[in-house]
Amino acid sequence: QVQLVESGGGLVQAGGALRLSCAASGRIFSSHFMGWFRQAAGKEREFVAGIRWGVGNTYYPDSVKGRFTVSRNSAENTVYLQMNNLKPEDTAVYYCARSWRGYTTLAREYDVWGQGTQVTVSS
């Protein structure tokens, strides 16, 4: 069974950058899709980035396109989320997750989740 552990969150000023990591224990197969989500207080969980583990295709919603970059290191079984030009509205708990269904933005279609890491952006 795959387990996911996020790290790299913290407090940053608006305009700053953070790099989140998601380390996976257990095998991730080329058919899997790894997603990053965030959940702000009182809001639903939101898809912010994803990558096909095998071929490395990446996907972003318009809200973060051009600011966030997702990548993976297959040898280290790790997924990264580089976040630049952060805004106060990016404040949330960030989660990585695995989907066996391929590319999807729906949280219910992910079967393995990390514990989350807090990102706080001050204005």
Description:
- The protein is mostly beta strands.
- The chain is 0% helix and 50% strand.
- It has strands at residues 3-7, 10-13, 18-25, 33-39, 46-52, 58-59, 68-73, 78-83, 92-99, 112-113, 117-122.
- The chain is globular.
- The protein starts with a strand and ends with a strand.
- The relative contact order is 0.31.
In short:
The chain is an all-beta fold and 123 residues long. It contains no helices and eleven strands.
Mean pLDDT: 96
Amount of beta strand: over 45%
Structural class: mainly beta
Shape: globular
How many individual helices?
Answer: 0
Q: What's the gyration radius in Å?
A: 13 Å
> What is the number of beta strands?
11
**SSE succession:** EEEEEEEEEEE
Helix proportion: under 10%
The residue ranges in which pLDDT falls below 50 over 5 or more consecutive positions are: none
Topology, element by element:
Layout (H helix, E strand, L loop, with lengths): L2 E5 L2 E4 L4 E8 L7 E7 L6 E7 L5 E2 L8 E6 L4 E6 L8 E8 L12 E2 L3 E6 L1
Which short descriptors sum up this protein?
123 residues, mainly beta, globular
